[in-house]
Design goal:
The chain has 184 residues and is mainly alpha-helical. It has helices spanning 6-26, 29-61, 65-89, 96-125, 128-144, 156-179. Helix 1 (6-26) runs antiparallel to helix 4 (96-125), helix 2 packs across helix 5 (128-144) and helix 3 (65-89) packs antiparallel against helix 4.
């Protein structure tokens, strides 16, 4: 994998996300909560990094970039809402499997829209050096991103202003829950 190109990095993460959905679906009951928390974390940091780094750049560089990004943000916000509800309800919720299938369908549809509508245009509108710099930015954003979904933080400004304190709280909560033997 060439993770030094932002598009390749994001494509690889899309594959990781799909694999984690499979893992959650197929996990034995004792392992399901831990697998689901890994999925929650990956989705949260992936979307935050896109919102902070990729979307603002796409708005400026792509023809009709605002339209493309606004559509993706609407999809992301909807998925964050569902993910938050699922995380609160837990994997033992009777609707978990149905909700997971619905979430998976929405996330895959979102990823396919990015791959079809945004990424090819993004490659065309940017140079190798720009995409390499953005890959570094995405990795840095992910390192500081919240580990749980927070609907309403969809812009780079919101993520940069509110994201770090929220990320600290998320990560502290993760450590405490792990110390108590509870999933993420």
């Amino acid at each position: 994998m060439k993770d030094n190109d932002v598009v390749d990095l994001l494509l690889h993460q899309h594959e990781e996300i799909k694999a984690l959905f499979d893992e959650v679906e197929n996990a034995a009951p004792p392992d399901k909560a831990e697998a689901f928390q890994r999925l929650v974390r990956l989705l949260a940091v992936h979307e935050t990094a896109e919102e902070e780094i990729v979307h603002p750049y796409a708005r400026r560089k792509l023809d009709h970039g605002d339209e493309v990004v606004d559509e993706r943000l609407a999809e992301e916000n909807s998925a964050k809402d569902m993910l938050t509800q699922m995380e609160r309800a837990g994997v033992d919720d009777p609707q978990f499997a149905v909700n997971l299938a619905t979430l998976r369908q929405a996330v895959v549809k979102h990823a396919e829209a990015e791959e079809r509508e945004e990424f090819p245009r993004f490659r065309q509108a940017t140079g190798d050096k720009e995409r390499q710099a953005m890959a570094v930015g995405v990795k840095a954003a992910e390192a500081m991103a919240p580990t749980h979904p927070h609907a309403g933080l969809e812009t780079a400004t919101e993520n940069l202003l509110v994201g770090p304190p929220v990320a600290i709280m998320d990560r502290a909560r993760d450590v405490i829950r792990k110390a108590m033997g509870k999933p993420g």
